[in-house]
Amino acid sequence: MLAILGNRTYRHLFLAQVIALIGTGLATVALGLLAYDLAGANAGIVLGTALAIKMIAYVGVAPIASAFAERLPRRAMLVGLDLVRAAVALLLPFVSEIWQVYVLIFVLQSASAAFTPTFQATIPDILPDEKDYTQALSLSRLAYDLESLLSPALAALLLTVISFHNLFAGTVIGFLASAALVVSVALPSPKPGEPRGIYERTTRGLRIYLATPRLRGLLALSLAVSAAGSMVIVNTVVLVQATYGMTQQATALALALFGAGSMTAAFALPSLLDRLDDRRLMLAAGAALPALLLLGTLVPGFPILLLLWFALGFAYSLTQTPSGRLLRRSAHAEDRPALFAAQFALSHACWLVTYPAAGWLGATLGLPATFAVMAGIAALALTIAFRVWPASDPDEIEHEHLALAPDHPHLAGAGRRHRHAFVIDREHPAWPNPGRTG
After folding, report:
1. Does a structural domain hold residue 202?
2. What's the 3-state SS for the chain?
3. Quick one: 113 and 220 in the same domain?
């Protein structure tokens, strides 16, 4: 897997991602302490609102940003967004009112909502070989998991010698270092496409996404993943400290086991995808999510919870990490930023539903009932994924164009009925169904 780091451009981008993630992790810890400093016992309300603002920014901003990403050089855009994030982090230690936190968080997460899909859409152009790209996806998953494990530990270490306000300085340094690494390499810019209006460019990724059967399956799997992930992220502290009466260190250990399961899956993914296609692997891993959540209703104590969290992390990662491969094969290169932005927005819309559901249900119905409800959501999502993602999902599909003029360039040398790698575009506005021409 690490051999892919021999590619200088990818190596610099990967390091930029890792450094920015560590900076973001430091900011997350510092933000919690800042919320307590400003709101005291109401800090949970502040953090909950900030999390909701983050998800709203992700869902609403990503498709709009992708429309402008089609017209801007990628390197300039990525560097500019890193500088915006650094500027916001620089301002956070100086806020004195809660509303100022909300405004700055919206700006920060809006920049992230524009940065992440653009970054993700750049990688397939740098690594056109599918095996290389699969390794890059696994490394990216590993980076996210390491961030969740290392950033809190690093923050705890730093807080022994500095105040929490200074943690934001680490975030600023992280974003500036990320920008410097992006500047150090040449990136492929979007291929010029046909002129489109702002509305069409804003909605194009969503329209391609929802018209592609495999991506509708991916959206359903994203809901299953968010149901499992929300249960872990929201209710681990309640399970460990309120139900089992254990310490904060035990809570950290439980979350670490979930991350360890995800990291193990990231290492195993390239070899698994050599033997299984995306659909079989993702649906098999997705099928484990409702089963494991249902087992959560029966967990008798902390040691079994650790095993369950490790297994959930493993299935969680195997279900979602290959999604970049599906997105890459489902659009032309010029449409990839819009498609990655659509996935970013739609997947976070799932979290916007499951985050509050896991918290509210846990507080009102109790954790066993919440495990059962989240298992039901994951099972329903998995059923939908099985139904909408065809078992036969080849790249090349035979289809017929009845509406195109005989002299249309797309028909040159191929005729009205032909076969090629099929994606949604102007000549192919709908997915062909067996027995139907279009």
Report:
1. no
2. CHHHHHCHHHHHHHHHHHHHHHHHHHHHHHHHHHHHHHHHHHHHHHHHHHHHHHHHHHHHHHHHHHHHHCCCCHHHHHHHHHHHHHHHHHHHHHCCCHHHHHHHHHHHHHHHHHHHHHHHHHHHHHCCCHHHHHHHHHHHHHHHHHHHHHHHHHHHHHCCCCCHHHHHHHHHHHHHHHHHHHHCCCCCCCCCCCCCCHHHHHHHHHHHHHHCHHHHHHHHHHHHHHHHHHHHHHHHHHHHHHHCCCCHHHHHHHHHHHHHHHHHHHHHHHHHHHHCCHHHHHHHHHHHHHHHHHHHHHCCCHHHHHHHHHHHHHHHHHHHCCHHHHHHCCCCHHHHHHHHHHHHHHHHHHHHHHHHHHHHHHHHCCHHHHHHHHHHHHHHHHHHHHHHCCCCCCCEEEEECCCCCCCCHHHCCCCCEEEEECCCCCCCCCCCCCCCCC
3. no
Same-domain check for residues 213 and 178 = no
pLDDT tens-digit readout, 294-320: 999 998 889 999 999 999 999 999 999
Spell out the residues 6+ positions from residue 424 whose beta carbon is closer than 8 angstroms to its own.
Answer: 207, 208, 211, 212, 330, 331, 430, 431
Q: Mean pLDDT across the stretch 37-55?
A: 70
Residue 149 has pLDDT above 70, yes or no: no
**Tokens 């089963």, residue located:** 291
* Range(s) of the domain holding residue 311: 208-318+346-391
pLDDT confidence band for 221 (50 / 70 / 90) = very high
Highest mean pLDDT among 41-50, 86-95, 128-137, 409-418: 86-95
Whether 438 and 225 have beta carbons less than 8 Å apart is answered as: no
- pLDDT of amino acid 436: 44
> Do residue 59 and residue 179 come from a single domain?
yes
pTM above 0.90, yes or no: no
Mean pLDDT of 150-160: 66
The amino acid sitting at 26 is L
List, for residues 86-101, the tens digit of each pLDDT value. 999 899 888 888 888 8
What's the total number of domains in the chain?
A: 2
Instruction: Please check whether residue 229 is in contact with residue 316, taking contact to mean a CB–CB distance below 8 angstroms.
Output: yes
